[in-house]
Amino acid sequence: MFKVLENEVFKTKRTIIRPIMVLFPLLVMVFIILFFNSTGYVLESTINQWSLFWLNLYLALIIGLIDRYEKIVRNIKQF
Predict the structure, then answer these.
(1) Which has the least CB within 10 A, 1, 23, 34, 44?
(2) Which helix (H) or strand (E) holds 34?
């Protein structure tokens, strides 16, 4: 099991996926603070929106980028 996880970490070693995994949640927090600060419910909005919308988008983005990089690597090896 640890070998599989280790291989997944090595797949994303020099890709843009790692910075996106850190920056995306921070950008979401800034977005929510800027747009929902006037309502006074920033924490509640963060919890509700993250679980309903942003987490799904985040997972789809990471999975899609990993799939894209795997396809690129496979195409290079075939030639």
Answers:
(1) 1
(2) helix 17-36
Based on its alpha-carbon atoms, the radius of gyration of the chain, rounded to whole angstroms, reads: 17
CA angle (50, 51, 54) in 5-degree steps? 45
DSSP secondary structure letter of residue 39: G
Backbone angles phi, psi at 15, to 5 degrees: -120, 175
**What domain range is 16 assigned to?**
1-77
Write out the two tokens for 77: 């090896």
Per-residue pLDDT in tens (0 to 9) along the chain, 79 residues: 888 878 877 877 888 888 888 898 888 888 888 887 877 777 777 777 777 888 888 889 888 988 888 888 777 665 5
Which tokens in the block code for residue 5? 């996880």
Record the pTM.
Answer: 0.64
